[in-house]
Every structure is written in structure tokens, then in C-alpha cells.
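Sorry to interrupt, but I need a hand with the structure work. Could you add the entry underneath, on a fresh line?
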Amino acid sequence: MVLSERPIDERESADTVVLESPFLETSQTSASFGARGFSESNEVQSPFAGNPADRLQLSEAEHLFAEALAELRDETFDEAIAFLTEETEQAVADRFTDEAPVHFAERERFAETYLSGVGFEAEQYLNALESGLSKLDLSSLTGEQLEDKLNQFDPETGELTPAGEEFIGGLVRKARSAIKFVANTAKGVGKIAGSLLSPVLNRLKALIRPLLRRVLALAIGRLPAPLQPAARTLASKINFEEEDRFEPEDEERDAEMSPANLADPETLAEEFDTALAEAFISDAVGETKVDGEEFQDVASELEGRQLERLAEARGQLIDALRAGDPPLVGPAIEQFVPALLGALKLGINLVGRSKVVGFLAGYLSKLIGRWVGPQLSGPLSSAIVDTGLRLISLEAENEQDAGRSEAGPIALASVIEDTVRRLAEEEDYIFEDEDLTQLAAAEAFSRAVSTHFPPQFVRPDLLQSATLGGTFIAKRPRSLRTYHKYTRVPEIEITPQIADTLPSFGGVTLGRTLRAAGVSLPIKARMHIYQSAPGTTLPAIARTDRSLGGAGRGYAPSTSFHPLTPAAAGLLLREPQLGVAVPSSFLRSPNRIAVGQRFYVLQPLGMGAPAGLARSPRARLAVARLAPSKSTITIDRRRGRISIRLYFSEDEAQRLASQIRSGRGHGALLQALIDAYRHIDGRNGGVPTLREEEQVFEDLLPDASRRMRGLHTALGRRLRGWIIPALAKWTKANTEAFVRAAAHPASGATIRIRLSGVPGLRAGSGPARAAMGTPAIAITVTPGAR
């Protein structure tokens, strides 16, 4: 619901802005503060390379597909799918403590029953929508009339689980977006909205069961089949994935690391939206194909047993290393490598290269031979215990301490796995030359040893930490969801300055996530450090790591885990090599992580569980709703539009509302809006998130301005000159609207700034056109993270 959408120059208040003193002992000083714009240059050149109009010849169907996909994208629906997957996985783990393949059929049936209620409620809601709306001419209804009509079909979900309720809520928002888009599209193509709505709702119903089937597959550790083939050519056109990029040299960086899971909840949500968007094309413009690729559902056969095979092969490798027969180690490694490569996206680099695999098996068996066997591995196991194993325990499949005899073989298996994984990430030309292969293998082995061996056995120049003296050990190594944990849990102090500098997932700073979880800075905290393996998910870590207080029942929202980059490790620990640099795609969301990526969880001293870690599904949902404040910008060059979203967390929205009520006027809100906007363009040292027509470009390192060079040119300066004065005028008339949004049951409040007809932005516009005119600006406020 839009609470306020009025022209920014409609009213002006005579209220003065009350400025907040920066001193600890405050004495407020009132001052008159006038909105200032920025002087405009005579000419501004578009920041985008070349002339996209020369390359982009989109058909009517392609235009419609792009617009539908943009309308359907909803981050909260992505989170709802992730929560449902996590809750289902927890339920399966509670029912079956053993992940052995022999129990797969029982686990599948249990998960299917667990999700059946959600599927039933979803289909009931969509059936009610279709029967109630199919005979209406939606295009004749006003926006308010359509909203009232849709409200009549909101389902009652009191009997569902927390994640089930969240999923149905996300589905309701998705259906509303689709229906509103149909109504608007019908006016543009000259058709009756009812004729377009029926196939869309039918497609939506048809996609629910396949989507839940894929949620089931993720929850039990299988890798689901894709929902449908990707329209690569169309996506390339829509997202300008040819020459016109912000950072061409970095676009291929995603190929440097494998994802921890070949499928994830966000991928499912994206494929779901893509399949639904195709329904608009079929009936609106009479096309069933887009760029020659037909959209069709693909049945999930739940055949992705890569994680099961890897867990079984890892267990056999540990047993072989523990048995201590050196001649059998090489064959055991050769049997293990194919299972590992099957779970790695980049494993294709080594698949079929039997000569390389054979060399690697012989090379590794020779290097680790001095540690193989019960007698030889004793010193290694004892050293691992001395680095902190007593504090965090080494858990085997049955959650019991595996003891000294198991520590050494598990460490050796981790070194072998890490070496093969690092080697698989090398480019193909490495494996075409024997010398290059040997050098790459030696480097990968050295880095793996420095990760998984106690420091006293590692060369000083290879140590990742010179002060902490810890090592990464495998937790639950025989399970599907294994991971590694650092044996030291250092105590650190975090100042507001450090917290507000470090980025977390999605471009949000550590400071914002901590404050949203109710933590006051500065704090002293224990720092738990993890490294992912194939199959790792962050909720699984929170659920199984007893030191986090979960004891098998922990629930982790995204705000609990933060990426341990070299910059973060340097600031927090003064040990930058403990951090791992990853491609930006693995920093956008905690639901999509890489193998070998590192994370940390902060546990404030005096608290039983880390900040943001809930102990029940209901509590987890309540904590997850306390999302940190976040700012994003979307650029639509085809239509010459820019949309800016400034979301204020529940804590921050309530603080601002309280300041407004206490007589601070609109100054507090204006300052918050300006700070949030500066966070987007990096002028506050912030970490921007840029979306260009739903193709995300992010760089979450401190030098993020490289990704935002388009907003640091003349256009960026003109944007500030348009937007900041507009915000100043808007706040004078709309403080009460913000207070009403903050009082809504939805958590937090979102302010959207929409610029239409931006000079110099539309594809094909040149410098002459860029110098003319100003955009139309509309500012709205809504409750929640919309």
C-alpha cells in the first residue's frame, strides 16, 4: 500500500531542521537548513559504453518478457523458499539422524508429507483467485479497486508451519504482482485482461508442485533438475551481456570457484519467475517461443546423488588412511577423486583426464605417506587436539567424539580433498603441460596443508595466521552437509567504526546487521570461523555446531553469518590471510556460497547464542524479519528510468519515528535519507548494490566504486543534484506518512525514489540530448521491505 505519493513541490513546511550535535554530551543547536542542489554542467555524456540501440533489437515479446520478469522478482520470495528448505531439512534431520543412502526413500516420503500441506494451501488459494477473477475485466478497475478485490482472497494459514506461512505469503505477493501486470498489459496490447489472466494463473498453479519438489530435493541433499532451460540469448539481450558492461574484466570471475551446492533456493526462485514470465508472452502477443528457445517444465527425478556419493567416498578414504596400508592409499584417492569432481561445478576440468588423476593420486599418497597408519598419525592427531579440539569437539556421523585416532586421518582426507578442489579450479591449459600441472598440484597441496594441518607442521612462510595458532578441521565429515571449523575462537572487540566499514552479504555492513539484531556497539565477542565444503549450507552449520548453542536445534537467519574476506580478517584479527576472496556472486546472499569460502559468526560475550541466532522456527522467523537497512538502485536504460530503494530496518524505522514524534521535525528523517542515498553511490564509504534491469552487479570490497563508475561520472553528480533536493522537499510534507509506515505490522519501512525520463540514460541518447531537461521524480513510502 502506497501511503504517500504526491508531487515533491506540492507543499513546503516552514519547520526548521533541528540538527543533532556530534558531541557525546549533547546540547542541541537549531539551525536553518535549506535544500541545496548541485550546479549543472552544460553537457553530460552518458556513462554507458557505445550505443546499445545499435545492438539491441528486441521484439515485442522480448520487451514484454523483460518487463514481466522485472515485475515478478521479489527478494522476500527468495527468502521464503530458503526458509522452507531449511525448515524441511531440519524436520528430516530430527526424524532421521542417519544420512546413509539406504534411508533415502524414507527421507523422501517424510519430506513429501511435510510439504504436502503447503502445496494444498497454495493450490486452494490459486483456485479461488481463478474462479473469482476470471470473469472480471481487470483493466477497467482502478488500482484501489483491484487491491480491494485481491484482499478478498487472502488465505488463512494458521495451521501451517512458520516457513509454510511465509511461503504462502510470498506466493500471495507473487500472484498479486502477476495479476496487476496482466491488468496493465491488457490495456497496452488491446486485449481483455481476463483472457490473459487465465493462462497465467494456470501456469502459476502448474509450477507450484515442481517448485516444492525441488525444495524437497534440496532439503534431503539431492541436487534437483533445473525447472526449465535458460533462455541464454534472450537474457543476453535483456541484460546487455555483450560489450556493454560495467566491469568486463570481472564478469568471468564466477568461473574461478565452484558453488557449495549446484542448486540453491535463489536459483529455484529465479527459474520459477522465468517460467511464469513466459506465460505472459504466449497469450499477450501470440508467441510461445523467445529467441527460438521454448520454455517448458522439466520433471525433477531427484537423481542428483553427488553429495551422497561424495560422503560415502570420503568415509572410505578416511578408513583407508586410518588403516595405515600405504600401498592402498593411492587407489583410495583415485576412487575418491571422481566422487569429489561430481559435486564440483568446476570438476569438469579434471573429468576424463585419467593421466592427471593418476599422477595426483601417486603424488598425494607419497607426500602424506609419513602420516598414514595408527602409529604414524598419532603425533598429527595429538597436535590437532592441542590446537583446540577439546573446546569444539570433533564430531563423527553419530555426533560422538571421534577421538585422537580419527583426527589425523580426517585431516589428511581434508588435505586431499582441498588439493583436488583447488586443482580443479585451474584453467584447462594447466593440464596440457606436465610441468604446469606439477607446479599447480604442489601449490594446491601447500595451501591445503596450511589450512588443515596444525601450525607446528607448516612452513612459516605458508602460515595463514602467525598469532592465532589454529587450524581448520572437518566437522561431520561422513555426512552430506560437512564443513570445516577453525580450532581457535578468538575474542575480539568491534568498534562502530570497524563494524560500519565491513561489508556483509548483499552489500549491507556488519554494523547494520548487528544493530538490526539489537546489538549495541562497541562490543566484545567470540569469533567462530568456518570454511565451506561441497554440500555446506549456513543453516546446517548453525543447526549442528554445538558451540553456537544450537545443539541440533539452531536456526540461522542471514544476519548471523558474515563473509570472512581478507579485508574483514585483516580488520578484525590482523590476519588477512585467514580470509578468502571470492567472486561477487557469492557475496550477494548467504543462500549461495562457494566451496572454500570462509565465514564468521559473532557471539557477544555473556550471551549463550550468537547475535541473530534463534532457537525455534517461530523465533527464527521473528529474527529474520529484523532485516538490516539496505539501499539498492535499479537502472532501466530502455525506458530511461532509475529506481532507488531505501529500506530502513525495524529498529532504525522506530528510532526515526520516535525522533519525529519527540519534536525533531523532519531533520532526522532527511539526514537518514541522505545517508542512505550516499551509501548507494559510495560517498559515505558505503557498499553499493547496483541492479541494471535485474542483472546484479556488485563488488562488496571497499573499492566498490569501480563497479559504480557510471554513478561517479557527470550523470552521478546530476543524480545527486536532482535526488537530494527532492528528498529535502518530500520530507517536509511526509514525516507523518513515514511514521504511519513504521507503525505498520510489517517490519521497517521502504522509501522508493523513481526517476522517469532521465536525460542521457535512454538507449540511443547522445551527449546533446543528455544536456537537456530534468527527470520526473516520484517518492513513495510503504511499510515493510517492499
Notes: Residues 306-466 form one domain. DSSP finds 23 helices and 16 strands in the chain.
